[in-house]
Design goal:
The protein has about 500 residues and is an alpha/beta fold. The protein has 19 helices and 15 strands. The strands form 3 sheets. It has a 7-stranded parallel beta sheet, with helices on both faces. A 6-stranded parallel beta sheet has the order 12-11-10-13-14-15, sandwiched between helices. Bound molecules: uridine-5'-diphosphate-xylopyranose. The site of uridine-5'-diphosphate-xylopyranose has 24 residues, from helix 1, helix 14 and helix 15.
């Protein structure tokens, strides 16, 4: 194999079953396949494999050498509704059950690695790249002598705080609203309002604590950690993981999907953006699985109308309703809102799913009101678009903290889906961020600087310059190849 063809080297990837994980894993798979020439095998449950296949742009389906392999999974066996294999079809309280159910994939994943090894005449895959929630794959990698890396699809800063909070539960040891992180003193204090609903009530014996106490420490045993981030933007978080694990931590981002599949809303959105002045439109989206409450939707609508700014808003039913059901504008928005604002081309409502990357890369987009899922953040900053943060769950609160306190590219407007928001206050933040002067100008300038830093990190030019993320990816593959070589020499 050492002298064999590159495509005979197999990189096996196992993402967690949420869009925020599948999308960057698929983008990373493409990047590896295109820049390294290795065969990439993405492994997942049947419905997610179907989803991944169908998200490939039609012109690449026949040419890509990415292989997709299904692991058997029956959601009903785990107390989940039938055909529930992705967080995007589950209400929030069932997500932990899906996470717990993933532990059942271990035997079939092991069989798969064994099969690949047999097919390749005793040579195992070059490496396994697994999601942060799948540390159990390390045992299998060790058994077959395969290099193992965790791919953290979040920011290092956000995941470091998430890790620290869940493993130490500092808020359960104080009555104070603000508290410090025991093993991460480099960050300022955390406020109780920055805890997700499950973390707020966690006491170590709840199902989230039990699951996360089991899986989070497993990272430390991986051969290294890949992070979808940029060294210069995320030093504090990277330092946390480097000092904890003593293993290499490679910031290889941004791994942003460049795949664009035709969607019915795409042309409509782009045509709509084309008729607006540069940087005049606010794009609003709460990501792939989050939504806000009915009263928050109403206040946000009133703020958008009151602020007199142009906007594209990806609307979803409010909390408490099936997130995939029809959006009832008559019920959840001010009377006549959609008609009024679409007639004068002030606002465009997109149901369920928008072509986000195309919107963020359009010159008319001037700000992104976002839940701060990390993919959204990277997509926005790669295009120099400043952020109005409304974090809702998970590590989104800490991504917002990183953006506001450390990078200066964002203003936080609200926290969570339970807080009271007032349209006048939302409108005033929108005005501030869209303002050509003052704070608006400052954060736009910072966002442009960050865009340039990102460009530099992924630069790989003919003169031999390699940006930090390109170098990190080289180092990762060098480490995997060197382990392969050592194993072969000792055979
Ligand atoms: C989840 C977690 O909740 C979050 O904490 C973590 O940081 C990432 O995964 P998610 O809602 O999936 O969040 O957010 P995000 O990371 O922003 O990923 C969403 C992806 O879906 C982005 O690539 C975005 O471009 C895409 N998307 C989302 C669309 O293309 N259209 C949409 O309408 C919504």
């Amino acid at each position: 194999m050492a002298e064999g063809r590159k495509e005979n080297e197999n990189v096996v990837m196992l993402p967690f079953m949420g869009q925020g994980h599948l999308i960057p894993f698929l983008a990373l798979a493409f990047q590896i396949q295109q820049t390294r020439g290795y065969t990439v095998t993405i492994v997942n449950t049947p419905l997610n494999i179907k989803k991944l296949r169908s998200s490939l742009p039609t012109n690449t389906t026949n040419t890509t050498t990415i292989r997709f392999i299904e692991l058997p999974f029956c959601s009903a066996d785990h107390g989940l509704p039938p055909d529930s294999e992705n967080t995007d079809v589950l209400p929030y309280h069932l997500i932990i059950r899906l996470m717990e159910a993933t532990l059942s994939l271990k035997p079939s994943f092991k069989r798969l690695i064994s099969d690949i090894t047999h097919q390749q005449h005793g040579y195992p895959p070059l490496c396994i790249i697994a999601d942060m929630f799948f540390g159990w794959t390390i045992d299998i990698a060790n058994e077959f002598g395969v290099f193992h890396a965790v791919f953290n699809t979040g920011s290092a800063y956000g995941m470091a705080i998430f890790n620290s909070l869940w493993l130490h539960l500092p808020h359960s040891k104080t009555n104070s609203d603000e508290f410090s992180l025991l093993d991460f003193p480099q960050v300022s204090r955390i406020h109780r309002s920055q805890l997700s609903n499950y973390l707020k009530i966690a006491d170590g014996n709840d199902s989230w604590s039990i699951f996360l106490h089991r899986v989070l420490p497993q990272w430390l045993n991986s051969d290294g950690v890949l992070v979808n981030t940029v060294e210069d933007l995320d030093r504090t978080g990277l330092h946390y993981f480097r000092s904890k694990s003593g293993r290499p931590v490679w910031p290889i981002g941004p791994i942003v999907s460049s795949m664009t599949r035709a969607r019915p809303s795409k042309e409509a959105c782009l045509e709509w953006l084309d008729v607006h002045p540069p940087a005049s439109v606010i794009y609003i989206s709460f990501g792939s699985q989050n939504t806000v409450s009915a009263s928050q939707i109403m206040e946000l609508a009133m703020a958008l109308e009151g602020s007199n700014k142009n906007f594209i808003w990806v609307v979803r039913p409010p909390l408490g309703f099936d997130v995939n059901s029809e959006f009832r504008a008559v019920e959840w928005l001010p009377e006549g809102f959609e008609d009024r604002l679409s007639k004068c081309k002030r606002g465009l409502l997109v149901r369920k799913w928008a072509p986000q990357l195309e919107i963020l890369s359009h010159k008319s987009t001037g700000a992104f009101l976002s839940h701060c899922g990390w993919n959204s953040v990277l997509e926005s900053l790669s295009h120099g678009v400043p952020i109005i943060a409304w974090p809702i769950a998970g590590e989104q609160f800490y991504n917002a903290k990183l953006l506001e306190e450390e990078m200066g590219v964002c203003v936080e407007v609200a926290r969570g889906s339970g807080c009271e928001v007032r349209h006048v206050e939302i409108a005033s933040v929108i005005d501030m961020v869209m303002d050509e002067n003052g704070k608006g100008r400052d954060i736009r300038r910072k966002a442009c600087e960050v865009k340039e830093m990102i460009k530099d990190a992924i630069r790989d030019d003919d003169e031999g310059y390699k940006g930090s993320s390109v170098k990190a990816m080289d180092e990762f593959f060098n480490a995997a190849l060197s382990m392969r070589k050592t194993k072969e020499e000792t055979k």
